[in-house]
Structures are given as C-alpha cells and as structure tokens.
Description:
CATH superfamily of the largest domain in chain A: PurM-like C-terminal domain
CATH topology of the domain at 65-170 and 254-298 in chain B: Rossmann fold
Strand order of the largest sheet of chain B: 2-1-7-8-9
Number of domains of chain A: 2
Structural class of chain A: alpha+beta
CATH topology of the largest domain in chain A: Phosphoribosyl-aminoimidazole Synthetase, Chain A, domain 2
Largest interface: A-B, 26 and 36 residues
CATH architecture of the largest domain in chain A: Alpha-Beta Complex
Radius of gyration of chain A: 21 Å
Shape of chain A: globular
Helix content of chain A: 25-40%
Oligomer: heterodimer
Amino acid sequence: MDEVIRLAHGSGGEASRKLVGELVETYLKNDIIDCLDDSAVLRISEGRLAFTTDSYVVDPIFFPGGDIGSLAVHGTVNDLAMAGAKPLAITLGLILEEGLPVADLETIMGSVSRAAAEAGVMVVGGDTKVVERGSADGIFINTSGIGMIPAGVELSSANARPGDKVILSGTVGDHGVAVISRREGLSFKTDIKSDSAPLNALVEAMLGASKAIHAMRDPTRGGLATSLNEIAARSGVGLLIDEAAIPVKPEVEHACEMLGFDPLYVANEGKLVAFVPREDTERVLAAMRSNPRGRDAAVIGEALQESPGQVILATAVGGRRILSPLSGELLPRIC
Amino acid sequence: MKFASEFRDRELIANIAANIEKVLGREWTLMEFCGTHTVSIFRHGLKSMLPEKLKLVSGPGCPVCVSSKRDIDRTVCLGDYPKGIVATYGDMMKVPGSTMNLAEKKARGADIRVVYSSYDAVDLAEKNPDRKVFFMGVGFETTAPASAAAVLKARELDLKNFHILSLHKITPPVIAALLEGGTEVDGFICPGHVCAIIGSGPLEPVAEVWKKPCVVGGFEPGDVMQAILMLVEQLEEGRSEVELEYFRGVSREGNTNALAMMDRVFTTADTEWRGIGTVPGSGLVLRDEFARFDASALIECDIETTPDPPGCRCGDVLRGRMTPLECPLFRKACRPESPVGPCMVSSEGSCSTYYLYAGDDNG
C-alpha cells in the first residue's frame, strides 16, 4: 500500500478500488462485504429492528485504551444494545484527510476488525471519501448499525417508573479523562485508559436476568448527570442519587479536580445506567457483576414519584443539591 | 465518590453543621470572596446543611468575571496584529466584549490559542520566532507569580516576540473598596490559595479597622464548614480577628519567594474591575525595566466599549449585594451557552455556579 492517503484514493477510480479492496481483504473479510455490491443484503427473521447511526471525530484519533476505529464500533454497538437489540451488522463510512499516513489507517482498521469480532457484529458495507488537506482532521468515521430486539424486551428512556432502582455498570469519567490527557498542549501523566468497550454481552446477561428492565442509557457526551436528567425528564420521574455510591477511579477524580471538571459530566464509552424494578435488582446486579464489563456495578439511587423531571444528588458529605444536565460545552470532540 | 480525606468526612461535617446551628444566635451574612469557595459550597450541597438564618453571598473573587470589557476589547484587537498569536487561558474565550468575544474573533480567522500555563505561551514564542505572541495574563495573586516567572524566562531566553497583556489584579484593595462602598457583609471567608501567596497579614486591616472578622479557609467541604463555624463564633462572641482555618498552607508572611518575583516584574496601578469600577492600586502592570514585554504598548484598538447590557446585575452579584437568583436575566436571557454577563461565563462565576448547582428555589 502507499505511504499516505492521496486525493486519488477517494476518486472512485483504480486507486480507490485498490485501497478499499486491500482494506476489506485484510481487515473486514466476510461473505457479505466480500461481494462489494452497492448494498449489503441481510436475511432477518421476523420481529423488531433497531437502527442507529453515529459519527466519530475524536481528537486525538489514538488515545489510551482505544482509537477512533474501536470507538466507532463500540459507540454504535452500544446504541443498539441500549434498545435491548442484539447487534447484527454495521456499516463503516470513512472520511480521510489527504496526507493521512496509511499506517495509521491500517492501525485503525485493525481496531475496527478486533472490536467488531469482540462484539460479534459484522461490518457489511462502507464508503471511503478523501478530502483535501485541511478540510478534515486526519480521519472521521461514521458507523450505522442494525440489530434485532428479542420478544418481550421493552427498553425506552420514557419507561422508568417510581420505585425503580438505578444501577450503574462501573466507574465514570474514564474515557473523557483518557482522551483529554493526550490533547495537544494539555498532556499530563496518567495511567487512565478509556473504558471504550462493547456492552451488548453485558446487556444480554442483564436481560437474561430480567426482561422487565425499564430503561438503559450509555452515558457518553454529557456524562452520567446528563443521561440521568434525560431519563428523569422523558419518564416523568424524580431521581434521588447517592453520590457516595457512584464509583469513580481516584486517578479520574484527581485529574478532574485539577482540570476543574466534575466526573459526573465527563464522557464514558463503556458504561451503562439501567432502571430496574425493585424486585429484580439483586438478580440483575448479580448478572452484571459476573460480566467483565459490569464488575463494579452498583445501585446508585432510585426513581421517585416526587419532583418529576428532577435529579437530586445526596452529596457524599451529607448535603443535597440539584444535579443539572450539562449546559454549554465541556470538551469538544470527545468521541 | 470517595475522597480519602478527613476534609470530606461525612460525620465530621455533620458535627460542624450541628455546632454552627448551636452557636448561631442571630442572622448573619457571610461573603465567600472566592469563586472556588462558591463552587465548593454548591457542589457539595453545603447550603442544605446550614441554618436559614445564615446567608452566604459570593464576592468578586473570579478573575474572569472581573476582567473589564475594555480589556476584552483590547485583546480582541490584538487578534488583528499582523502575524500575531494571542495566547489565553480557556475561560477567557467566551467572555463577552463590546463587539465580540475571543471565540468569535478566532472563528473569524484570528490566531487565538488556549494555553494552560504562562510557560506554554513562552514556548509558543520560542517555537514561532517569526510571529509575535501576546499572552493574556489573568488572575489574582495565585497566577501573577507564574506570569512574572514567564516574563523573566522570556528575558533569559532573550525573546523579542513574547509580550504580556497583564490584567492581573490583587485582592486586598478590592476588599477595601467593597467595605468603603458600604456592604451588608458581616464576615469574610477568605481564599486559602491567595493567602498562601500573600499571607494573612494583608487581611488584618479588614478585621481591625473595619471590624469584620476574616477566616482564611481551604476549599474542601470540611474546610469551608469549619471556616463558617469559626466566623459565626467570632461574630457571636463580638470578636473580629483574622483566623486561619487553612493552616495547611498559609502563614502570616505568605510565600516570600513568589511575592519577591511578582514585585520584581510588576508594580501596582489603578485598574478597572467589571461591575465594580476603578479600584486604586489593585492592578499589576509591568515595571519600566520590562517595558519591551508589554503588549499594551502594541495595541491599536478602535472598538468603542459599550456599557453593560440593560438588566445585567453582574456588578451587584460581584459585590455580594444580590444572589444570581434575584437577577431578572438569570436563566432567561442569560445562560451558560449564551452569557450576557461575565459571571455566567467562568466555571467559577457565581451565576454559572448557581445555574449548574442550584434549583430554582435552592438559593
């Protein structure tokens, strides 16, 4: 392969055909994509289909614990999983900046391949465009995905009910802090890795323990605080959250103190928050803790009849306050 | 979350709260001078643990908030300097100027970069010898020594292209100005990090001449609660002294090395505080010896500085005369994504703190 991406790689001509052919052959080989037809053709059984899309512009493209390739797979797989769907297939749209080292592109494609294999999802189609130097920043990726929702599963951010326990799958703030720690002009020494990971196996285990789970969200941009507010507002319930029960890694806490961030607003890429009927809580929690993505799962609060739409935080030191959604912009280009 | 520190110990803090309740006789108004204190009070929900008779108001201790609109306008104009780079702390980007803020100026093509320390700006100058780097020096005694160090470093490296626009301000004169202007504040929670530099000595006139007790407090919730208790005790006992809660970092003399470095590079001058007006001797400007590093000499600015928008009560908020909840624009025209006044811009501004942490009825 060439050393850097040139405009010709996006021309639709011979250079494009060669690049795409090699990438697909090396990283994405499967029966469907190998056809290189205009559309992927999938066979599905009857039922409900979940369908989602997301674009990835993270800066920097390589960060501790992942890169834009793994992130683009995890993000879309997780969006499907939050609907209770079993991810079936994703597409991969690449926007490349002229001059991108092909070695970087290969590293990213390797990540895509491994992330898709781990999540058990096929990459069934894609597209590659090249723009002039300065018109993009290295690489942007769009992934779209479809998944099948099993019968009996009814997850929606509008379905939380008073009495539900709020379960968080693990520590918050890891992804945002890992990415920001590698930003130009702000490099600081930290061992924190992004939590970027596929959550579909965890969700499957949870739904195996109880199909009655009401709502799930993966708290990405805007962090846990924003996801909780969205569910409180959409479901018309109040939430009482116990700050002391929210797991935060000490390194993340310290980095946030230094940067003036609140970990509750920092992005995650491998965590979920679930609203579970009280009587199923222990079963779901046990199922989560036996999955590597849910080892640190904890009950962090409950949904109330009172104060619909509001999230109240019982602070670790014994005070109480409102937990607002994120306003303005915390960190641009975090995913 | 668990912070392994006695300053976040739940029982200890509950004890302090119970003591405050016990000692408190009448209504008192305390001012937390510094935005970092305001954030700590709200983030940990401390108001919910305090008796209603005790009123806390915020002070002018947010450097972003008190930078004058004229100074923002002048920095915007620096963005037009041929081959110039403006280097600023990120919080300054969205402070409204008369025509635009720095973020808008950047969007229109000016080379404005966010730096995280004054040395980053010196680095920029060193790496771009054909450009002029203008560093926007903002902050109180906590950041002024770092700006002084950057100027000394630039001189050591013999950089001809590093310039600083010093908007630095010092705190004792503005406390004096607040007191002279008349205030309902009965006592001050004073900022531990500023006092770690200047020492507690400069606060003595506040306690001795103005008879307003001062407690220098740290920023952990336990620190803040303890400082409040110490102030209430002084007030109830009729004492007015400078006391240290923040004994971990503060002496009477302060950090003499940092003070000496500041004094070597800067001298005081009258300066304008947004919302408060000109405060004599409260600004830091470069000494003549360092004049060649002074960015203000290179500014040509024809922006006509406009008065603050009608309704914006930032000045009253900064003087502790009202809380943001009493401002007619709060949560309406003025929000973090479209701030009218500077108190809504900085993460440590009173208005943005109230916006994020206080419910409508949780002032």
